[in-house]
Specification:
heterodimer, A: about 260 residues, alpha/beta, Rossmann fold, four-stranded antiparallel sheet, about 35% helix, globular, B: about 350 residues, mainly alpha, ABC transporter involved in vitamin B12 uptake, BtuC, ATP-binding (chain A), ABC_transporter-like_ATP-bd (chain A)
Chain lengths: ~260, ~350
C-alpha cells in the first residue's frame, strides 16, 4: 500500500473535525475528496501533508509512519498546493518554481536544479513568463506556477486543495488533464479536494465523500455519485445521467420543483 | 525568441551581482569622501597616503584614524545591522512595516541601555570603559528581546494581523519610552546629560573599542542569517507551504528573530535610537534587486550603510561646525516614506 490513513481522528477543543478516517491509496491513482463546506476536507489534506501534526501513527507512506520522515525527506516525497496563497513579497515565476528545489539545495542553485525547473516550466508552458512577478499573473497562470513548484520537488505524492476553484473552465480542464497525465505517466499519487462534482467524477479513479468529518462513501465515481448519497450528504436532489464525457449531475433544491 | 531557463537564471544572477558590486563601490567612495570632510579637510592624495601607512602629518593621521574612521565604520555597521534586522523581520513576520523601530526593539533596547547608563554612571559615563560597554550592550539586548517578545506575543494572541502587530509595537514602545523618561527624571545631572545626548541618536561615541564588540557580532550574525536565505524565501510563500518544502518554520523564526534582536539592540546601545533605516533600506532594495533573500539581504545591508553614512555626513556638514543628531536626518526622509508605504500597501497580499 502506497499511502494509508489509518483511523485518523482530529479534535479542535471539543469539536471533532475528523472521525476515524480510513484511506488506502495506490501509486498512480487520482483520488478526489469531496463533501460540503466544513466537512473536514482541508484538515484531512493538511494532515496528510504533515502541516497539521498528527499525534499517533495514523498516516503511513510506503509503510513508514509519516512522523518518522525528516522535513527534507518528506519534502522530496510529497508536494502540496494550497487553496489560495496570500502573497508576501512577490517572487518571480522562476524563483517560485526554484523554491520547489529547496529540499535538494544548499545555497547555490545547481545546473541540475535549473534543468528540473526548466523542464517543468516548459511542460506547463510557463517558460516565457519566467521573469514575471507572481502578482502580475492571472489566477490560472498562478495556479499553474504553484503546481510547477510542487512538481519541482519531484514528489511521488501530490496533494492539491481545490486546484480548480478560482479558474475558468479552460484552465480547470488544463490543470486536471495535467494531473491525470502525471498519475498515468509518472505514477504519481494525486489527491485532490474538489467542489465541482462532474469534474471530480470525470477525472478521478476514486472518490471519498466526506460528511461531518466522516467518510460517508468511497469508491469509483459511479459508486459514490448516487442520488441517495448526494441527497443524504449535500441535502439536494440530484439526477444522475450519462453524458458523452462522463457522469452528468443535475442538482435541485428539494423544496423547488 | 524563447531563452532557456539556464540563461535567464544566470543573467539575473549576473545583474544582481552587478548591483551589489556597484553599491559596494559607491559605499567605498562615499566613505573616502566622508573621511576627507570636516573641520580639518584632508585632500584625497593625503588621505590615500595616510591609509596606506605613509603619513606625512601625525596630527592629520590621528584625526583620520582615531576620530573620523571609527565614526564612518560605526555608521556603516549601524546601517548594516538596522537594515538587516528590518529585512529579516519583514520576512519572518510577513509584514512590510516590521522593523526594529515599529516592533519596539529600539525603545526596549534604549530603556535597557539607559538603565545601565544611569545605574552605573559614576563608574562610566558616555565615555565608557570596556566592562561598562558590555553591560550596556547586554542590558540593551535583554530589554530588546523583552520588547519584541511582548509585541509578538500580543499579536499572536489576537490574530497576528498587521494592525495588531503595529499597535502592539506602539504600545510597548510607549511603555519603554515612559521608562526612559522616568530614568531621565530621577537621574543626576551627569547621567542626564549623557542620557540626553545618547538618546538623540548619533555616532559621537564611536571608538575602536566599541567597534571591537560590534564588528564581529554583526558580521557573525549576518553570515548565520544568510544561511537561512532559502528558508526566508520559502516563508514568503506562506507558512504551510514552507513546511511542505522542508523548512523548520519554528526554528527559523526563533533563530532569526533572536539574531536580529541581538544585532539591532546592541547597535542601538551604542548609537541611541536611529529610526527608519531598518524600514526604508529593505524596501528600496526590494525594488531594485527583488525578493530573493540571497541577494536582498546583502543589498539591504549595503543600502542601509549607504543611507546612514550619507545621513551622518549631511548631519556633520549642513550646519558645520555644529553637528545635528543623525536621527533627525533619518526621520526627515524616513517618515514620509513610511506614510507612503502605509498608503500604497496592497491589501490583498497582506490581509
Amino acid at each position: 500500500m502506497y499511502m494509508q490513513v489509518k483511523d485518523l481522528s482530529i479534535k479542535y477543543g471539543t469539536k471533532m473535525i475528523l472521525k476515524q478516517i480510513q484511506m488506502n491509496l495506490q501509486k498512480g491513482e487520482v483520488a478526489s475528496i469531496i463533501g460540503p463546506n466544513g466537512a473536514g476536507k482541508t484538515t484531512l489534506l493538511k494532515s496528510m501533508a504533515s502541516i497539521i501534526t498528527v499525534e499517533r501513527a495514523r498516516i503511513w507512506i510506503k509503510d513508514r509512519d509519516i512522523r518518522s520522515y525528516s522535513a527534507n525527506e518528506l519534502a522530496k516525497t510529497l508536494g502540496y498546493v494550497p487553496q489560495h496563497t496570500a502573497f508576501g513579497y512577490p517572487l518571480t515565476v522562476l524563483e517560485t518554481v526554484l523554491l520547489g528545489r529547496k529540499p535538494y539545495m544548499q545555497w547555490n542553485v545547481t545546473a541540475h536544479d535549473l534543468e528540473v525547473a526548466g523542464a517543468i516550466m516548459e511542460r506547463l508552458q510557463l517558460a516565457e513568463m519566467a521573469q514575471r512577478y507572481m502578482d502580475e499573473l492571472s489566477g490560472g497562470e498562478r495556479q499553474k506556477v504553484l503546481i510547477a513548484r510542487a512538481l519541482a520537488q519531484e514528489p511521488e505524492i501530490l496533494l492539491l486543495d481545490e486546484p480548480t476553484s478560482a479558474l475558468d473552465i479552460r484552465h480547470q480542464l488544463e490543470v486536471l488533464e495535467l494531473v491525470r497525465q502525471l498519475a498515468l505517466q509518472q505514477q504519481v499519487l494525486v489527491v485532490l479536494i474538489m467542489h465541482d462534482l462532474e469534474l471530480a467524477a470525470r477525472y478521478s479513479d476514486r472518490v471519498f465523500l466526506l460528511q461531518q468529518g466522516q467518510i460517508y462513501a468511497s469508491g469509483r465515481p459511479e459508486e459514490v455519485f448516487t442520488s441517495a448519497n448526494m441527497e443524504q450528504v449535500y441535502g439536494v436532489k440530484v439526477e444522475i445521467g450519462q453524458g458523452s464525457s462522463g457522469l452528468k449531475l443535475t442538482a435541485t433544491l428539494p423544496e423547488s420543483r | 525568441m524563447q531563452r532557456p531557463i539556464q540563461a535567464i537564471y544566470h543573467g539575473s544572477v549576473k545583474s544582481k551581482l552587478l548591483i551589489l558590486t556597484s553599491l559596494f563601490l559607491l559605499l567605498v567612495l562615499l566613505t573616502l569622501y566622508a573621511v576627507s570632510q570636516g573641520a580639518v579637510e584632508v585632500a584625497l592624495p593625503e588621505l590615500l597616503a595616510i591609509l596606506s601607512g605613509r603619513a606625512s602629518d601625525e596630527m592629520t593621521a590621528y584625526i583620520v584614524y582615531e576620530i573620523r574612521l571609527p565614526r564612518m565604520v560605526m555608521s556603516i555597521i549601524t546601517g548594516v545591522s538596522l537594515a538587516c534586522a528590518g529585512a529579516i523581520m519583514q520576512a519572518i513576520l510577513r509584514n512590510p512595516l516590521a522593523d526594529p523601530f515599529t516592533l519596539g526593539v529600539s525603545s526596549g533596547a534604549a530603556f535597557g541601555a539607559a538603565l545601565a547608563i544611569v545605574a552605573g554612571t559614576s563608574v562610566f559615563g558616555i565615555n565608557l570603559v570596556s566592562s561598562g560597554q558590555w553591560m550596556i550592550a547586554l542590558n540593551a539586548f535583554v530589554f530588546g528581546c523583552l520588547a519584541v517578545g511582548a509585541v509578538y506575543g500580543i499579536a499572536k494572541l489576537k490574530n497576528s494581523s498587521t494592525t495588531v502587530l503595529l499597535l502592539a509595537g506602539v504600545a510597548i514602545g510607549q511603555l519603554f519610552s515612559a521608562g526612559v523618561s522616568g530614568l531621565k527624571f530621577f537621574s543626576n545631572n551627569e547621567a542626564l546629560k549623557d542620557l540626553v545626548v545618547w538618546l538623540m541618536g548619533g555616532f559621537w561615541g564611536a571608538k575602536w573599542q566599541v567597534l571591537h564588540i560590534l564588528l564581529p557580532l554583526v558580521i557573525i550574525s549576518l553570515v548565520l542569517l544568510l544561511k537561512y536565505a532559502w528558508d526566508l524565501n520559502s516563508l514568503c510563500a506562506g507558512e504551510d507551504v514552507a513546511r511542505t518544502l522542508g523548512v523548520n518554520v519554528k526554528q527559523v523564526r526563533w533563530v532569526c528573530l533572536l539574531l536580529v534582536t541581538l544585532m539591532a539592540s546592541v547597535t542601538i546601545a551604542f548609537t541611541g535610537i536611529i529610526g527608519f533605516i531598518g524600514l526604508v533600506a529593505p524596501h528600496i532594495s526590494r525594488i531594485i534587486i527583488g525578493t530573493d533573500y540571497r541577494f536582498l539581504l546583502p543589498c539591504s545591508c549595503l543600502m542601509g550603510a549607504l543611507l546612514l553614512l550619507l545621513s551622518d555626513t549631511a548631519a556633520r556638514m549642513v550646519l558645520s561646525p555644529i553637528e545635528i543628531p543623525v536621527g533627525i536626518i533619518t526621520a526627515l526622509f524616513g517618515a514620509p516614506f513610511f506614510v507612503y508605504l502605509l498608503l500604497k500597501k496592497r491589501k490583498d497580499y497582506w490581509a
